[in-house]
Amino acid sequence: MNKKTGWATLTISMLAMLALCALLALAACSKKEEAPAASPMAEAPAQPAATPIDPATVASVSGTVKFDGAAPKAAKIDMSQDPGCKGMNAAENVVVSGGNLANVFVYVKDGLGSRTFDVPKDPVVLEQSGCQYHPHVLGVMAGQTVQIKNGDPTTHNIHPTPKDNREWNESQPPQAAPIEKNFAREEIMLPVKCNQHPWMKMYVNVVKSPFYAVTGKDGKYEIKGLPPGDYTLAFVHEKLGEQDQKVTVAAKEAKTVDQSFKPAAD
Amino acid sequence: MAARFRLLLSFLTRGGTTLKSISIAYNRGHHRFAVVLACWTFLLIIAGALVTSNDAGLSVPDWPTSFGSWYKIPKLVGGIKFEHTHRMIAQVAGLLTIVLAVWTWRVEKRRWMRLLGFAALGTVVAQGVLGGLTVLFYLPPAVSSAHAALAQTFFCIAVVLALFTAQKWVEEQPRVELDQRRPSLFTLTLLSIFVLYVQLVLGAMFRHHGLSWWPHVVHAVVVSFVLAWTSVRALTVYPQIEAVRRPAVLMLGLVITQLCLGFAAFLTRVMWGRDAVQPELPMVISTVAHVATGALLLATTVILAIQVWRHVPVAFEESLPQVQRDPSVA
């Protein structure tokens, strides 16, 4: 190998590396093009007429979700990197109180057939205060407005990272007007985060029916107005996964369906 | 046999003259500026690594503006502190590169150096565009990884610009020893650059959630073997050539450091940090140090390759037409 060949080899190596970078970038851009490009406000699908439900026959399902094991200690959050954050310094990923598990999203996963439902006109509100999201787990119908408010004296950015919906990322300064968005497609445990405060995470659950609930600190939930029938009820937790139960409800029945989760295997 | 010896002799002679074929005057200011750019780029790589380790890549959601402004500095709190500082350091790096490219164009006699100055400029522009794209497309793994890989490519260009403008490079008469071994040391250095670059891409893909951790960890074994082979060959066969010995020693030291940092990064991020509610300091320190040491290792290996090319050229047998091989022709 002579000097010229040596230079040529070095040059070709450098060019190959640059080309590799360019190819990676190109691959990424073409992949992203697959995502739907419509604006979030334009995503609301045209609503077919809702299937009527006889209010005289509707049933309800309620119960308690338990945590079967020693309650994990809540991880501490260090908010010192932003003096505007003065919140409760405990993570909400597994919240257990007296053996009851909070933040479990409960919804009718199967059994509603081809029924359609009216999308509520009222927005669902997501608050940012104390540099935490409230609520930590949120249910919303597809197409329903989610109103996001910032009550903190610092800027947040709201960044959902969905699998089936459109991704977006917007900043919201203190005292800014609420941001209104909706999600067009059904998606369970859709993560939302703030990149300015990396501990800030919450989950939006987008469903097609109004039959859903989120367990409170007492582990309780209640789903009302369910037409009689056979259903699959799904209990979903951000860390502990999903558990399903088959349920049959008769007209006007108030059924109790409890569930329990075991600690996540490491 | 005599013809081969003549060829060898002519190559040696020609090699010595080719290396100093253009008379170049050392320009202290130009060289120091190139060193400043290389150091600034290293700082930029650390700033970029801090953005990724703190998960702050999208804390400023727009680009090329920051919160709608071209010049206003936002309140540097939370993730904005990392992302906006990275952007400001990058802007300065861009300006420094423009100045160096123009300066090189004006003062350099070596045409390839003038082109290298503008290659640096092209690379830094491409790097800025990749940085913007990764924000606008919400950190797609391939774009973020390309941004990470091109950052270190640019760092290598800045380092070689500093090397080629150094007093020693432009004024010394290089000591040359022919490399008769196969594979040659030069081939080994090129192989080292290649495996390091693959490792850089694998590491970046893991860091930006495009790949699992194991390809990066498995390939670390390959990288360690190739780099150890290269540095041991350089140190055992050519210890008398300082320009080769020094980067080889540094490369070996950096490989060992990098393996330790890689292990620490694996523990703090993959093993202990899997369920962390926010980026934890040990993870941030180990991963940023791992990225920074990786950049130094790649640049050191590029320098070693260049010094080996200069000081330890490969002995080769030139193939001659049959008519020249016939002793009766002479």
Please outline the helices and strands.
The complex is a heterodimer of chains A (266) and B (330).
Chain A: H1 3-32, E1 59-67, E2 96-97, E3 100-101, E4 105-110, E5 124-129, E6 132-134, E7 137-141, E8 146-150, E9 156-160, E10 170-172, E11 179-181, E12 187-193, E13 201-207, E14 212-214, E15 220-226, E16 229-237, E17 241-249, E18 254-256, E19 259-261
Parallel strand pairs in A: 1-18, 1-19, 5-8, 7-13
Antiparallel strand pairs in A: 1-15, 2-3, 4-14, 4-16, 5-6, 8-11, 9-10, 9-12, 12-13, 16-17
Chain B: H1 2-19, H2 28-53, H3 78-107, H4 111-136, H5 141-164, H6 167-171, H7 185-207, H8 214-237, H9 242-271, H10 281-311, H11 322-325
Helix pairs in contact in B: 2-3, 2-5, 2-10, 3-4, 4-5, 5-7, 5-10, 7-8, 7-10, 8-9, 9-10
TL;DR of this structure?
The complex is a heterodimer of chains A (266) and B (330). Chain A has 266 residues and is mainly β.
CATH architecture of chain A, please?
Sandwich
The best one-word shape of chain B is globular
Uncertain stretches of 5 or more adjacent residues of chain A = 1-6, 21-42
Estimate percent helicity of chain B: over 70%
| Structure annotation, total helices of chain A | 1
Helical content class of chain A: 10-25%
- Could you give the count of β-strands of chain A? 19
Q: State the name of the first-level CATH class of chain A.
A: Mainly Beta
Radius of gyration of chain A: 23 Å
Q: What's the number of extended β-strand segments of chain B?
A: 0
Helical/strand content category of chain A: mainly beta
The H-and-E topology of chain B, N to C, reads as: HHHHHHHHHHH
Low-confidence stretches of chain B: 5-20, 325-330
State the major sheet of chain A. 5 strands, mixed
The number of domains of chain A is 1
Q: What about the largest sheet of chain B?
A: none
| Overall average residue pLDDT of chain A | 85
Number of domains of chain B: 2
Radius of gyration of chain B, whole Å: 23 Å
